[in-house]
Automatic annotation (TrEMBL):
Descriptive protein name: Biotin carboxylase
Keyword Electron transport: no
Organism: Paraburkholderia caledonica
InterPro entries linked to this entry: ACC_Biotin_Carboxylase (IPR051602), Acetyl_CoA_COase_biotin_COase (IPR004549), ATP-grasp (IPR011761), ATP_grasp_subdomain_1 (IPR013815), BC-like_N (IPR005481), Biotin_carboxylation_dom (IPR011764), Biotin_COase_C (IPR005482), CPAse_ATP-bd (IPR005479)
One GO term (biological process): fatty acid biosynthetic process
Keywords: ATP-binding, Biotin, Fatty acid biosynthesis, Fatty acid metabolism, Ligase, Lipid biosynthesis, Lipid metabolism, Magnesium, Metal-binding, Nucleotide-binding
GO MF entries: ATP binding; biotin carboxylase activity; metal ion binding
Gene3D superfamilies assigned to the protein according to its UniProt record, in alphabetical order: 3.40.50.20, ATP-grasp fold, A domain, ATP-grasp fold, B domain
Higher taxonomy: Bacteria, Pseudomonadati, Pseudomonadota, Betaproteobacteria, Burkholderiales
Domain ATP-grasp: 126-322
Amino acid sequence: MIADIHPFDRILIANRGEIALRIQRACRQLGLACVQAYSSADAGAPYVRCADEAICIGPAPSRQSYLSSAAILLAARASGARAVHPGYGFLSENADFAARLEAAGMTLIGPTSDAMRVLGDKISAKRAMISSGVPCVPGYEGALAADDAALAIASDLGYPLIIKAAGGGGGRGMRVVHNPEELLGAIRITREEAERAFANANVYMERYLQRPRHVEIQVLCDHHGNGVWLGARDCSTQRRHQKVIEEAPAPNVDPALIARVGKLCVDACRQIGYRGLGTFEFLHEDGELFFIEMNTRLQVEHTITEMTSGLDLVELQIRVAQGERLPFTQEEVEVSGHSIECRINAEDPTTFVPSPGTVEFFHAPGGPGIRVDSHVSSGYAIPSHYDSMIAKVITWGKTREQAIVRMEGALREMKIEGVKSNIPLHRDVLQSSEFRRGGMSIHFLERMLDDRRRSQGANKQA
Ligand code: ADP
């Protein structure tokens, strides 16, 4: 047996909302007991009642509950859970938390703290990818200061450039620079912001690609050196660098390119000693992929890969954490049809201001090829302390067109009353000719919103 595999039959779920419910479903599939950690703001949530056991880890603010390693470790100990599933967000990519679990002889359902540390820092992640031959955005993989050296590096790379925080995440800690006059100020401000937001002032730079698409490759690795890639997703429909709609596979991207780079991703995992689920994020431009970062956890959009591969990724993630070998080879992975996910947020569809409160009425759509992952039902009170995503609507079709038509029907059927939601925005996107064509750049949604604001302004003036 490999030394750091510890058997477990009970998992502490250190997350909330739809992903907590998703993990509970996987535990049930595997016959594992699940202990749901919850903050006092989530005490009444239906998924807390569904768990085999539930344990309060603190008050509403995340820092004192879902982000508190000490509270979660205590909850794991008290409940007898030998493993922790961190979901996404919160502590899921926190290497210090992973190290604390390791030191306590517990299993984090995810990679080791060492792998997380290498890949969690965007500078060391890029260096690791370069050494494994994974194609990266051309840049400078070192910490920058606001000095002449930075000016010289920038002029070698060529403008426009993007200054990025090594510890950045969630679409924050990035600044585009168009000319040398802007460079040093941008480095200074990004360093200050990064220090404040991520407690890591290191920033680096890379070429700013002008009209890329966001394409990512899902991988899954076990403890025994086996790994597979499970196809690509396109997450170019973004607002403020945050994903709004995802689809799989990435339309109009050469499958041979995905296969070649997918293999390199798995090789990189082997070299780093990575295990579990992971996502390699790329920008795609002019027929090429350029690595930007790796997410060392389960992602929101894992669902669309499940729909196109027929696999239960959360179940597999837990099985490899138990030390099981991957139950299939790369040759046995089959990707079929097309899947789309719309992230349904409780927010104003035009101002994007969150809209917490009580969901007076909730009706989820159904029918062939429709899946809804949500923790919400009529009467559910959305707390104001956490992010505003309340459901994921996922469709599958034999073709992209069928997946879109099914999504339109599903969103028409879905009812959310009592709070605002971004369903109208999704419906507008689905109807746009650019989305219909597929292969939009990451600027597509922002441009659509700008056009809408301009035309509304013109209407007001008229
Ligand atoms: P985060 O960890 O905050 O999500 P990423 O590095 O994944 O940051 O980048 C988020 C988004 O920012 C990308 O999906 C893309 O829209 C944009 N972006 C990042 N790097 C570049 C780049 N070099 N050129 C153009 N856009 C970029």
